[in-house]
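Q: Sequence in, structure out?
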Amino acid sequence: MSDQSVTEVEKKVVQSSVEVSEAIQKEVKKEADVGEDIVLETIPEQPLAPSQVSIEQRLPEEIDLADPELYFNRELSHLQFNARVLEQAMDENHPILNRLVFLCIFSSNMDEFFEIRVAGLKSQLEYSRETTGPDGMHPKKVLSLISEQAHKLVRRQYRILNDIIFPKMADENIKFIRRSDWNDKQAAWVKRYFRDNALPIISPVALDPAHPFPRLANKTFNFVVELEGRDAFGRENGLAIVPAPSSLPRLVRLPDEVCDEGDNMVFLSSIIHAHADQLFPGMTVKGCYQFRLTRNADLEVDSDDIGVDLAGALRTELQSRHYGSSVRLEIADNCPTHIVESLLTQFELAEQDVYRIDGPVNLSRLMAVLDLVDRPDLTYEPFSPGLPNKLAKSGGIFEAIKQRDYLLMHPFESFSPVVDTLSEAAKDPKVVAIRQTLYRTGARSPIANALVEAARNGKEVTVVIELRARFDEAENLALASRLQDAGAIVVYGVVRHKTHAKMILIVRRENTELVRYVHLGTGNYHAGNARLYTDYSFLTCDKEIGEDVHRVFQQLTGMSKELKVKKLLHAPFTLRDRLLDMVEAEAENARKGEPSRIIIKVNSLTEQRLVRALYKASQAGVKIDLIVRGICTLRPGIKGVSSNIRVRSIIGRFLEHTRVYYFYNNRNPLVYLSSADGMDRNLNNRVEVAFPVQDYKLARRVKKELEHYLNDNTQSWLLQSDGSYQLAKPRKDDYRSAQRSLMGELANNSRSS
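A: Exactly. Output:
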């Protein structure tokens, strides 16, 4: 998850009986009132040289805005975001099954963190290509701090699972039964399950000169078995590897007839462990230990070697993704040291790369519980997304958009108008052409179905598919093939710049003229994500915006010099510089004594020039609020530099994904929504767009929705100047949740706007 769903928070303090890693919390107060603070500690930066004066002790004129002390490390900030996600599993305001989901999300997030970020750092060291960011920290130091903090986080994860989540689920009659607790009926049923479902397809591999260590794919589930004795051929070897069959579920529900009551489950690991001796008849199994290997999963497609076939190059690279270099070993905490050392040697890993765990490896597999038990009382209450009244009652989507612009905020408002726009366009004989960018959507999604139908109905359909959307490459290749088979023109954007912009352009013949209808969004065209991520959708018939989108598509599908756009901001050409100009304009207004204000809401903030511009604006006196869900390298609260900057991270039921740039602009606010985060890759190395909210009422609405986030005191983590995150503390009987407020205002509520 990379982007994954997270749940809604109205924070109560954790009970004093819970052991909490000191690296994660500075304090947990005893059996406290709702709203007491929880602090996620900073991950330490490079120590100062003995002669160096701390930046807090320097005069403003002595501070260089390029000083590494002013920047947090990107990877360590990323790890802290994962820590904030993990903390949601402790929040008693979440239903217990959703607290379990948070543990699964944390596990999935950590997988991607190791597959991409840690793997990248290791590659730098391996190939002597070390680079440092604005923080100046060497990759070797970063890896050391990651290992230190990640080990503490993982230990905490399993303590939460074993000491909090499992017992609370047992209180609700949802039980995960250990091997030692199976009754006779359960043991007999499990034995039959193993005999009928597992034994025929398991292929144990003894390790000897004729049986080399098997090549294990990334994140596959395996056992290392310690054996004693000689086999029928007289061979004697101490170890064997047992790959768990990928076709078997990792969690198996026991039938009601062998249980007293409730929902009862056993782990596949327990089933295989209990019957490991049947895999090695006549041998003595001294020990059986589950483990999982994480490998580098980042695809490296060399643009210079692609030639004319990006799709072919990507297909070739996908075949090797599962067998990249090793980066992490997770193994049962009771595995003997000599076996662990043997595996580390085999995988060319160091001691800091091994994670000894007290429970099943790959907790993300516990998501299966949601399908195995029918307990809606233990999950979030469902809701119906809202829909503006005029849009719901219109005689047709195009007629409605022609009358006015529409702004939708998902998931509180329905994603269906976006799908309906394409579906209606596919059937409408007046529609002559459709162009769309796709980043993540699915080969069989409603969006894909509408594009296929449009192409088959003779529309000119052109789709820009970004094949390199991480971990969705195979799905995007399948989507491209399906669209091409239907007759659509499919292109893959620009080789060295990912196409991340979210745009639909529909050209409709109305009387004697061609009219352009446009959708622009901050998120992906994925209906499932639209129920889990917060994103904006904008539907308009604005002539100049339509012309701008047309020009952007010209650049993506053809070849041309930079084309001037009137209203959109377009990365990598104008977006970054225009943002810097707007920040500087606020700073200049502040210097003149005019009112000034900046609010930016993004997933991550790392682009150094943007951070420096914000520092300068703060120095000029601009009040700046940054709502940064994940990575933030900017250091707030430094006297003379960033004392006017506040940074908060909202972690809730939904994954915060909207990107909003708000500037007061001397009483004439500028509001831009965008697909782009404040990161170097988004502003400088991707095709992105930011689009203005020109309608006064809609702009005022966006500002109001931003204020919900700024007023949040239950889901909001405040970044401190030392790098720690502190949970906002509500006053008694004053609990404000941005996501709940937005749900109340927008969901299941027909509105006039």
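Residues 1-37, 44-51 have pLDDT under 50 and may be disordered.
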